Here is the input.
Amino acid sequence: MYLRYFARTPFAALPPVGFPADGGAVKSGEQLCRACGLCCDGTLFDLVKLERGDDAGKLKALGLPVSISRGKTPVARFPQPCSALCADRTCQVYPERPWQCRTFECQLFKDATAGRITFVAALRLVKQTRRRADKVRRLLRELGDTDEHRALGERFHRTSERMESGKAAEPAKIKFADLSLAVHRLKLFLHDKFYTQNEARSGGKSPSPEAAENHFKMTF
Ligand code: SF4
Ligand code: SF4
Here is the structure.
């Protein structure tokens, strides 16, 4: 999220897992993010909130589907997976990216750039996490949710409601048990390695209260 380049090829759905052939080639936070993308692809967050200073009109003109939430305090935000995320995990609107995107650093990024963990170890954790997220996506697809344009937490929430309606066949129930376990394992990883205490308390891309509380904490 923090260190990305402008790129030209937008990626509408989720990029496949793909890493540098040489794990040792990752030697900076920038390269780590290029191998990760979890804060843009709907794994960590449901949405990004715009802040004062972000130009919603300009971001919309650049293709970000910014909308205003209903409720007592309207909030401008756009959903994840981000439509500006490219197949090579660069940001198509990098020079104009919103404030949350400019400032967000996950815990793993902070630890790696501060030298508390090596980049090789950080990349290993990114790989493990992306594999866990891909497993969740696969199980969601097998249970009939093929909406790759929605965040994982939201998809799991919707699938849970469907499965708990009592109409599911026995094989689907067994698969849903697998999905619940896969989501649980992913959630543990995200909270242990990526989310930070500050983010859990605040809003925005952080995990937003919606993402962290409703999906990655309460729903899972
Ligand atoms: S989740 Fe962390 S390591 Fe991954 S792209 Fe975002 S800031 Fe970079
Ligand atoms: S605009 Fe989208 S792709 Fe770019 S950094 Fe923000 S969330 Fe990621």
Summary: Residues 170-194 form the longest helix (25 residues). Residues 2-18, 206-220 have pLDDT under 50 and may be disordered. The first strand starts at residue 47 and ends at 49.
